Amino acid sequence: QEQLVESGGGSVQTGDSLRLSCVASGFTFGLRNYNTGWHRQAPGKERELVAELSWTGAVPEYAPSVKDRFTIIRDNVKNIIYLQMNNLKPEDTATYYCNVHIWWGQGTPVTVSS
Questions:
Q1: 105, burial (CB in 10 Å: exposed 0-12, middle 13-18, buried 19+)
Q2: Which among 89, 94, 83 is positioned nearest to 60, based on CA atoms?
Q3: Residue 84, exposed/middle/buried by CB under 10 A (0-12, 13-18, 19+)?
Q4: Are 7 and 97 in contact (CB under 8 A)?
Q5: Residue pLDDT, tens place only, 30-70
Q6: How far apart are CA 104 and CA 114, in angstroms?
Q7: Integer CA distances (angstroms), 57 to 13, 16, 29, 37, 60, in order
Q8: What span, in angstroms and rounded, lies between the C-alpha atoms of 48 and 45?
Q9: 92 and 110 Cβ atoms separated by less than 8 Å
Q10: Beta-carbon count within 10 A of 79 CB
């Protein structure tokens, strides 16, 4: 059964860094033409795309609000997707979800205090 499990969220201060991880099981995304991405949803807001990496591994796409601060990394050997988040801001507070093809993780919360 295909499954995605995120981890690495937490409560931090403005300017801190976090690295989120998303472990995939039940399938090997490196062997399929799957795009991989991270999304987030803040309280009272719609879910939005944060970062996406196509199956070709070409240049990733980032939301303007996180560009130059966040980096999406995919490890096809370990079947893990990372989101490195630097210089975090209070507006980054949200639950973060990873997505591969049609599958979604359960989310990991991130809270950034000023």
A1: buried
A2: 83
A3: middle
A4: no
A5: 667 788 999 999 999 999 999 999 877 678 999 999 999 99
A6: 30
A7: 32, 28, 12, 12, 8
A8: 9
A9: yes
A10: 19
